[in-house]
């Protein structure tokens, strides 16, 4: 086991992990209450992998993830308010309500987004790393993805290209043993995913993703290697999600006893045990970390709840950048007004008309099929 | 200063000028560096800019485009060359789910200023996996811009604009047009803005809209219609399909009262299908005849020279469509019959 770090670091690690746990529990609750819609993928159980990784990244390193990335953004420092507001589809969300749970984004903290297509973020990670290398910067990109993504064409293409071009990427597989409802033995010919690195001539290592100190220790070593040698590496963090793939998952593919077994390895409880036994943290410290997480998440729900819905007239905004090379775009070519010379700023009027029709229809649908409480 | 150069040279010049102007611009793709491009469009670029900025890639279309998207999000300005439009289908995930969606789904907090160049079109017996026309496919996607130049001057001006533009651009080139010559300005500041159609020939009796190689076919047909049938055709090349300069097309149709749309792609859900709907919706009262479409045949492109030629529109098909649209109302009679 890695050495217990100093008190401040321990408080920081515990605080972030508690925040993610609490945020995810609350997100699940708000989903049940139909405050959050669409798909909701929770990272409960995977906190150590996330926090251990981000805690050893530099501020200027890039992080990119999947559709299960509320925790990654929180770990990077994105305010819980903005993430919860995105789940609620509000204007104050990280993506203004356009992305939702699967598409959290915070460029300021170099969290380069959550992506909904399995494996789709791998090429993007290579692109971010390419930009760093192109500019002779020593930033590293950490690309996190699931075990299922290691079977996609993107995995093979990107690993090869990143190794060939010597791009500074740490590819980190969050191996939670299931690609949605298909267990790893049933979806991958090689179940030790770190071995997949061999085919690309790069280093691969399996680590205990439930142990925040081991994650810190090993990811830190990989970051250093990648940063100094300019070659990618593959880390397989062995972890587990206690909840289903998404909130709509009946979990018929695994035994309750398996979940219980993994709960014994709970990343937060075990870290607390280590810290308290070591004496670096007290029971009071632990309680105040939990209380703080409770407060932050409670405030985030309040913030999200009172945040405005995105204005309908913004429906067509941010689709294109209007400028010197393209002076206008048609908000909807079916509209009868002249199109050429229609500037971006003229768009709202038309968009509002169109969007209001949509909104009327939606509220009608809502009246007929009020979602109520989800299972 | 104007000089007569080929379209492939115009495209190369556009890239070279923009690379000199902006150090963030780089080119990558299969065989673009050492081989200098499957169609020799990137000739000389590696020599001038080196392997850092002109990069050969493995055959990994989705990842090539994805690296471009990631690099663009981090502030570079990638030009990605895909060897043919057919191969771009392997990169559809990155093009549609990522490049086009990212700026919108992240509420403008990320931008994807990149150009994806791809040659398409038939005529060289390349058969059913190297000869298609997918303008209509890309035209459908909000978030993308779509350029389809038909002359060397437009190729250069539009490509320069595309490289400077902040949006992801699908830049479709026609394999049969790479060798055509035309007057091209060497003014490095000159661009062709997106969303401005070119009226290639003015006319009174019918509007013919043609894209890529079909813009030339339309012009040739118009010349013959004038000469043999006394029909005065206006020929419009939209140059970009997103944004589409519908106003120029509608103004022409309101004048001529007839429209024929010529494309090499498939008929169902094609460029012509879309445009004829727009014309019908917005200029119905001005139309004297149904809008006519001339398209490629509704089959994967056949290899046999005879069959391939039969699957691609020619002047006579355009003339036939114009005569159907005019129905003998114009000129000395039905002509051709």
Walk me through what this model shows.
- The complex is a heterodimer of chains A (375) and B (337).
- Chain A is α/β, with parallel strands linked by helices and 375 residues long.
- Chain A folds into two domains: 300 residues, Rossmann fold, CATH 3.40.50.970; 57 residues, no CATH class.
- Chain A is built from twelve helices and seven strands.
- Chain A has a five-stranded parallel beta sheet with strand order 1-2-3-7-6, sandwiched between helices.
- In chain A, helix 1 runs antiparallel to helix 3, helix 1 packs antiparallel against helix 10 and helix 1 packs across helix 11.
- Chain A is globular, with a radius of gyration of 22 Å.
- The relative contact order of chain A is 0.15.
- Chain B is an alpha/beta fold and 337 residues long.
- Chain B contains 13 helices and 14 strands.
- Chain B has a seven-stranded mixed beta sheet with strand order 3-2-4-5-7-6-12, with helices on both faces. Chain B has a five-stranded mixed beta sheet with strand order 9-11-10-13-14, with helices on both faces.
- In chain B, helix 3 packs parallel to helix 5 and helix 10 packs across helix 11.
- The radius of gyration of chain B is 20 Å and the shape is globular.
- Chains A and B meet through helix 5 and helix 6 of A and helix 3, helix 5, helix 6, helix 8 and helix 10 of B.
Give the secondary structure arrangement, pairings included:
The complex is a heterodimer of chains A (375) and B (337).
Chain A: H1 7-32, H2 47-54, E1 62-64, H3 70-76, H4 80-87, H5 121-134, E2 141-146, H6 153-164, E3 169-175, E4 178-179, E5 182-183, H7 184-187, E6 203-208, H8 212-229, E7 233-238, H9 256-263, H10 267-278, H11 283-306, H12 347-368
Helix pairs in contact in A: 1-2, 1-3, 1-10, 1-11, 2-3, 2-8, 4-11
Chain B: E1 2-6, H1 7-21, E2 25-29, H2 45-53, E3 54-56, H3 61-73, E4 77-81, H4 85-88, H5 92-99, H6 102-105, E5 115-120, H7 135-139, E6 145-147, H8 152-164, E7 169-174, E8 181-185, E9 198-201, E10 206-210, H9 213-229, E11 233-237, E12 240-242, H10 246-256, E13 259-262, H11 271-283, E14 292-294, H12 305-311, H13 315-326
Parallel strand pairs in B: 2-3, 2-4, 4-5, 5-7, 6-7, 10-11, 10-13, 13-14
Antiparallel strand pairs in B: 1-8, 6-12, 9-11
